[in-house]
Each structure stands twice: as structure tokens, then as C-alpha cells.
From TrEMBL:
SUPFAM superfamilies: vWA-like. This is DUF58 domain-containing protein. Residues 42-250 form the DUF58 domain. InterPro entries: DUF58 (IPR002881), vWFA_dom_sf (IPR036465). It comes from Hymenobacter sedentarius. It comes from the Bacteria.
């Protein structure tokens, strides 16, 4: 049930999120680690250098062996989900899904997983009309809030300007930021935002979303393309332009990935034609490294 077309066909974001996360929840690390906390978890043999105050002396008296009492310590995170809702996210793939459709499914699944892990999770929808921001919470009503915001999100206009984005970086709060975007930008405004967020909040996972027909340039014959954000049009012969387009695209993707990693982002390229498992796996990996 990680197929994006099937999930989208459910027409129920809450159900789709649960289905998408189902295969990963059993293998995901719990949102706790063993350590000197308050809630008892297990015993472990004593090793030189361990804190003697944690020895179980009664057990030692009975067994003539030394064991430490391990306990569980909460390692819950704050997860901040970002959705690029500029007009380029309306681009539709051959499977009928837009980038926005795919991003909704993915972010809903990540929100569900975060909630199951005990994390505080928030969402910001980035659009030129302003930010739609749900502060991170861990209460039971947070998931319905996030699902509603995602379901009603519309992709319009250009990516927001720096003044609109300023509130996101006004406060320092340690968190894992997950951004889903097609990185369609005019002057590196998306990268500038993520650079500032990394400085004030820490880890950034950038999920670069492209449509399968963009990657393969599956168009044929004479085609008229329209820029979804500027409205400009271009006519060309797709078969004739395919080799040059694919060469330039691969070079841009390579440079984009290198630049993102130089800035300290975790960068992963996604396609709207692929299941959600790659993105979920990378999220869980980054989350566990951040714990």
C-alpha cells in the first residue's frame, strides 16, 4: 500500500497515512533509548567504569554477580514539516498525480509516524499568500489538524519572499526539519530558507520531488509547455530536444545534490511515480540519528 496512486485513490488522507506507515512502524525504533532514567527497563552486566550507584546490590547478593539497572529515557523529537505550495507543485505526472498530491500523502505519513513515535510534530505550508503554520504539538488532536491543512492546501504563485518566511527563523528551536519541494526557484530562495533553518534548528532533511515525466521527458512530438508560475510558454519538438534536456537535467540534479550536502542538508531525490518507502525510510534514518 505504498503505491502513491492507490493511496491517493483512497480519497482519505488519514487512512492513506496509516496505510503508508503500516509497513514501517513494526521495524521503526521506538522513541526511547536505554539509560539512567526513571522507568525500569532491563538489567545489564556491570562493566568497568559504570556508575556504581546503579548497581543492583540485592541481585548481587543473591547471584554473586553484578548487574546494572537500565531504564528508558524519552528521546522524543520536535519534527517540523514544510510543504512547498508554490504553483509549480501543480505539475501533473503521467499517473495522474500532481506533485502536491504526492507531497500531501508523504507528509501525512511522516506526521503519522512522528505522532506514533511520541514526537511533537508541526506543519508549515509555504505559499505567497502567507504561511499556514501549525506549531509542533504531541496531543491527540494534532494529526487531524495536520491532515485538514494538507487536504485544503492549494499550490499557487511563486515561492514566498524572505519577508513572508522571516517568522520561521525568528526563534531558535531544536528540531528535525523535513522539507518537500521541487526546488523550482528564481534566486535560491528555498535553499536560503533551509540554510537559515539549519542554523537555528539543526537537522534538515530535503526531499526533492520531481515528476516521472520530468525525469524521463516522456513527451512526444510538438509540445507547448507553460511555466506554472510565470505563465510563459514555449513550443518545441520533444523528440528532438530530449537528449539535450536529459543531459542538462542530470547535470542540474548532480549540482543541486552536491550544493545541498555542502550546506549540511540530508538530500534525497524522489519521483511522483515511485512508492513512498524511500522517503519514509530516509525520514526514519534521519530521525533515529537525531534522537
Amino acid at each position: 500500500m505504498l503505491n502513491p496512486e492507490l493511496l491517493h485513490g483512497l480519497r482519505n488522507l488519514s487512512l492513506a497515512a496509516r496505510q503508508a506507515a503500516q509497513g514501517f512502524m513494526n521495524g521503526a525504533h521506538a522513541s526511547r533509548r536505554h539509560g539512567p532514567g526513571m522507568e525500569f527497563s532491563q538489567y545489564r552486566p556491570y562493566q568497568p567504569g559504570d556508575d556504581l550507584r546503579r548497581l543492583d546490590w540485592r541481585l548481587a547478593a543473591r547471584s554473586d554477580r553484578y548487574y546494572l539497572r537500565e531504564s528508558e529515557v524519552d528521546t522524543c523529537l520536535t519534527v517540523h514539516l514544510l510543504l512547498d505550495a508554490s504553483a509549480s507543485m501543480n505539475h501533473r505526472d503521467d499517473n495522474g498525480l500532481t506533485k502536491l498530491d504526492y507531497a500531501r500523502l508523504l507528509l501525512a505519513a511522516l506526521a503519522y509516524i512522528s505522532h506514533q513515535q511520541g514526537d511533537s510534530v508541526g506543519l508549515t505550508i509555504l505559499s505567497p499568500a502567507g504561511l499556514r503554520h501549525l506549531p509542533a504539538r504531541a496531543d491527540t488532536r494534532q494529526l487531524p489538524r495536520i491532515y485538514h491543512a494538507l487536504e485544503t492546501a492549494e499550490a499557487t504563485g511563486h515561492f514566498p519572499d524572505a519577508a513572508t518566511l522571516a517568522p520561521l527563523t525568528a526563534r531558535r528551536q531544536r528540531s528535525l526539519t523535513v522539507c518537500v519541494s521541487d526546488l523550482y526557484e528564481e534566486e535560491s530562495e528555498i535553499n536560503a530558507l533551509l540554510t537559515r533553518l539549519r542554523a537555528v534548528s539543526g537537522d534538515v532533511l530535503l526531499l526533492h520531488l520531481l515528476a516521472n515525466n520530468e525525469l524521463k521527458f516522456s513527451y512526444q512530438g510538438a509540445v507547448t509547455f507553460r511555466d506554472l508560475e510565470s505563465g510563459r510558454t514555449m513550443q518545441l519538438d520533444a523528440d528532438q530536444q530530449r537528449p539535450a534536456y536529459q543531459q542538462q537535467l542530470q547535470q542540474w540534479l548532480k549540482e543541486t545534490a552536491q550544493a545541498a550536502r555542502r550546506k549540511g542538508f540530508d538530500y534525497h531525490q524522489l519521483s511522483t511515480g515511485e512508492p513512498l518507502d524511500l522517503a519514509i525510510r530516509e525520514f526514519l534514518r534521519r530521525r533515529n540519528l537525531s534522537s
